[in-house]
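Dear V.,

Thank you for sending over the compound details. I've combined the ligand you provided, flavin-adenine dinucleotide, with the protein sequence from our construct and run the structure prediction for the complex. I'm sharing the raw inputs here so there's no ambiguity about protonation or stereochemistry in the SMILES, which I know was a concern on your side last time.
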Amino acid sequence: MHSLVFIKQVPDAAQVRVDYHTGTLIREGVPAIINPYDTHAIEAAVQMKDKFGGIVSVLSMGPPMAEEALRKALSMGADKAYLLCDKVFAGSDTWATSYALWAGAQKVIQENGPVDIFWAGKQAIDGDTAQTGPGLATRLDIPLVTCAIKIIEANPEKGYIIVQRLIEGGSETLQVSMPCMITAEKELNDLRFSPLPDLIKAVKSSVQLLNSTNTTIDPAQCGLKNSPTKVKRVFIPSKRERGEILEPSGKEIADVLFEKIEPVLKQMGRV
Amino acid sequence: MSHNISEYKDVWVFVEHDRGKIEHVSLELLTKGCQLAQDIGCNVCAFAVGDSVEAFSDKLSEYGAEKFYFIENPALREYRTEPYRDSLLHLIEKYKPEIILIGATTLGRDIAGTLATKLDTGLTADTTALDIDFESETKNLLMTRPTFGGNLMAVIYCPDTRPQMSTVRPGVFQAMKNPVNLEKIREEFELLEDKIPKKILEKVESDSDKINLGFYDVIVAGGRGIGKKENIKLLEDLANVLGGTWAVSRKVVQMGWVPYSRQVGQTGQTVHPKIYIAAGISGAIQHLAGMKSSEIIIAINRDPQAPIFDVATYGIVGDAVEILPQLTQIFGKRLKVGGSNEKE
Ligand SMILES: Cc1cc2nc3c(=O)[nH]c(=O)nc-3n(C[C@H](O)[C@H](O)[C@H](O)COP(=O)(O)OP(=O)(O)OC[C@H]3O[C@@H](n4cnc5c(N)ncnc54)[C@H](O)[C@@H]3O)c2cc1C
Ligand SMILES: Nc1ncnc2c1ncn2[C@@H]1O[C@H](COP(=O)(O)O)[C@@H](O)[C@H]1O
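Below is the predicted structure of the protein with flavin-adenine dinucleotide bound, written out as structure tokens.
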């Protein structure tokens, strides 16, 4: 079984703060992590390897620093790591990103053989688009299973996998032919601590760098300039002012609050 | 990669449906679509695929759809990405809409990414505002969306390719009736069941109360500070006298007190009610991402330093378990019983 996991390094969104004076995000000191959903995709792929043998490859596109994320993936049990790193990729939207990752995947396949399952996170917490996985499945021309919460059965011999996924208001269980693309929810599995041998391996292994010269990637389909969507402007949403703390001024606090919101309740036809 | 823009016209709204019922977000998008179509000077159209979707015509015309493009096929009875995509592509490639709006639901986000890739066009996820750029010759669609968990807003456009595609958060726009005459356009599309790479083995409704919190104009939400599962009742009681519904933070879901369908926040639902009451909720950034744009926020928290007070219109420092019943009692006396429940 060969799994290929697409992972992204992201700033820990929970720690990003806003500077209202300059209207920018404060990213200094914010640690870069593997996108949380992607860690569950890695774990799922490693569990497949534990069960059926084979290897796990990981592929990321990003700046040189993203090598850290790939090493982390190696320490979680991945075997081969690739980083797409080239100026021509900078500023890619999801259309261009899925193109570059698709082309990078061809290189991984060339070196390590055909892939049975492609994995991605449900979404990246910096952009929150959830578009890259569907885009990749489409370019790879394989079936797509988003929001997976449980692998029920995999049968590499017969070439199918049974997956439970979240849908609006519940879940559904799908039988899908392989190769396929699965995007992970956090419920998919519990993360384990990396065993020592894997930690050592991660330090020793090398991350292979891919760029527009050592792959077939067409620079005319990547980067800011060739992305169909453009950013017109960004802005910080206006800050809510800190409101009023109510005190029970002789009256019950409930009455104090009621009088405050009475006009709105009237307008809504509730009074 | 660029398309002949002048070939594309009209605003199309994707009709999502489940067990014979149109998802509310599709009606919200029709209302918004009418406004955009007016700005551009074109028609607003609905499009759908399924095993029996023609029946939606009346409802769609009631909400302003001038045309309804659809495909019916037994293989489209349940949603599966690939046959849905291929049949929707057939409609889109034949009629070339200028704008496609899709609800940012689980299904909508699943289908949108694959459609846009096939169409080689741009897609903007999870938008919360849509406007027309009157300064651009081609009247481009400006799509505003939150990123970094709501810390930053980005205005995105798609100048060179068509259609301009966007998934839009449920509950952002209001659905309003606007009856018009609707023209039905039925298309045929062949699908062979054994060519479809996917079988649905089972569907479970995990939450018997599948609920779209976006419908409600009053939400009473509780966090871990409400103490125990039984105290969900306190939220429910107050929501009832206010004619609204109740919701929770993720901590409460993680504790297994209530199903995920009640969660507000970055990984839950986004809501914009007129009144949002946050009881025993600390106000973590991921929670704020889902409710910050409520008109009035009322916070009840024991800790005067809790970040929820930074966004609250009115704050009460105190024990939510004591205060919620007091509000229920007093509001119950002073309010009409059973206000209207839905925004629509
Ligand atoms: C990637 C990611 C996504 C997330 N998505 C979401 C999301 O969608 N929605 C979400 O809500 N969270 C989300 N979270 C979690 C979020 O960071 C917080 O952990 C969560 O919102 C906290 O829930 P809480 O406020 O109920 O609990 P706590 O943080 O434990 O706060 C409890 C609050 O109750 C107060 N309190 C205690 N007792 C009382 C009492 N008797 N009366 C009044 N007040 C009392 C306390 O002072 C405290 O402020 C996400 C986190 C991550 C990392
Ligand atoms: N630059 C990238 N490198 C590798 N994988 C990525 C990259 N961007 C997105 N992905 C994958 O696609 C998923 C969804 O990302 P997004 O569409 O940005 O929300 C992520 O969880 C990753 O698995």
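A first observation: The pocket of adenosine monophosphate (ligand 2) is lined by residues A 6-8, 35, 37-38, 60-62, 94, 97, 101, 120-121, 123-124, 127, 129-133 (CB under 6 Å).

Warm regards,
I. M.
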